[in-house]
Amino acid sequence: MNILVINCGSSSLKFQLIDSGTENVTAKGLCERIGIEGSRIVYNKEGQAKITTETPMPTHKEAIALVLSSLTDAQNGVITSLKEIDAVGHRVVHGGEKFKSSTIINEEVLKAIEECNDLAPLHNPANLIGINACQELMPGTPMVAVFDTAFHQTMPEKAFIYGIPYKYYEKYKVRRYGFHGTSHSYVSHRAAEILGKPIEDLKIIVCHLGNGASVCAIEGGKSIDTSMGLTPLEGLIMGTRSGDIDPAIIDFIAQKENLDLQGVMNVLNKESGVLGISTFTSDFRDLEEGMKKGDPNALRAMEVFAYHLIKYVGSYIAALNGVDVIIFTAGLGENDSYIRQVVCDGLTCAGVKLDPVKNNVRGVEAIVTTDDSTVTAMVIPTNEEVMIARDTVKLVTK
User: Fold this and answer.
1) Per the structure, how many domains does the chain have?
2) Any idea which residues are catalytic in this one (predicted)?
3) Do the annotations mark residue 360 as ligand-binding?
């Protein structure tokens, strides 16, 4: 089956066409600056160089039309007709408590996703626009919603309830939801495959470290706790997000800087994290370069980030009452040996023994601990698109 995977952001759209039999990506790409001047599509057919085309994309509908046109292009396409696309899998960020697993999209599902918009105002509306555009351009093609939050619906109440009046959970479903669920699920199952052990027997901690970052405690293949909360703002320090802070800071900054609530939230979401700490970048590659040059701002940002990450992993070792595997994934986790080293060195008390030679890898599957390490630390590149394709195939072939 040919599965088209769509991931819509507010002004971008990522796509992959995946052959579900081999799980090979036959074509992929990115539409950027949708609704903004200078929009472009980057298209990459398997085995060929990327093709970048600047073209107006006023809405996601035009972006998806360009994607479908690229896939069926006589010269660079990989299919001859849209009928060769058997199903579409859509990444949807927030499913609230309504969705505990992926689901076939129908009118009832669309309404339920829309009802979660206030929980993810930057993401869910864009996801819906992408779904609606695909339905209009590909009528009759089965479509599946795969939720970032679904994997974490196995968390026990003691892990997802906040220390605020319980009525806010009852009335508004204010609770911890967690995100990056598709990634956490993929790499944890892949770790079990690599180690040749049943996932039901493993206690795993996944560190999904990108511009957005989260940690997840997984027992027997199920999420029991995760660092992101009601929104992706909670948890680790990230590229531009603050992560955990004293809530009173919001009122304090508002008064000192004469900002309204929206103004402070903008600071916490877009001006904080390692960008705010370093004062010059949200890109961890820039921070690493800065550290090599002795930049104290870069060093401070990296040290604070790593320290908070160590604390989260340590707390999840306690929550799991032990750990068998620690996984590093996503852009930073897969490519930054320094962060892996600092984190593992901070967890020697838990039996983690890093092998510096094994740790000298980028973007490949690898075990980076010594043979006699009590805990196995691994690098596993994430593949959320494959997970979305797998879920889509399962549902449309039932």
Assistant:
1) 2
2) 148 (proton donor/acceptor)
3) no
Q: Is 148 a catalytic residue?
A: yes
pLDDT band of 90, cuts 50, 70, 90: very high
Q: Which of 82, 116, 147 is the last residue of a domain?
A: 147
Nearest partner of 389 among 100, 91, 27, judged by Cα: 91
Q: At what angle do helices 107-115 and 124-137 cross, to 10 degrees?
A: 160
Q: What is the pLDDT of residues 134-167, one digit of tens each?
A: 999 899 999 999 999 999 999 999 999 999 999 9
203, 124: one domain: no
Contact by Cβ (8 Å): 176, 159: yes
Catalytic annotation, pick one of 19, 118, 148, 251: 148
- pLDDT greater than 90 at residue 12: no
Q: For residue 132, say whether it is annotated as part of any ligand binding site.
A: no
Q: Answer yes or no: is 327 within a domain.
A: yes
End-to-end CA distance of the chain: 14
Query: Are both 130 and 201 inside the same structural domain?
Result: no
The residue to which tokens 């820039």 are assigned: 286
Residues 208 and 131 in one domain: no
Q: Is 196 annotated as a binding residue?
A: no
What gap in Å lies between CA 309 and CA 213, rounded to an integer? 10
The pLDDT assigned to 229 comes to 96
CB 239 within 8 A of CB 283: yes
How far apart CA 152 and CA 327 sit, in angstroms, is: 17
334 is in an annotated binding site: yes
Mean pLDDT, rounded, for 263-273 = 94
Q: Which of 132, 147, 162 is the last residue of a domain?
A: 147
pLDDT tens string 184-210: 999 999 999 999 999 999 999 999 998
Residue 181: inside a domain, yes or no? Answer: no
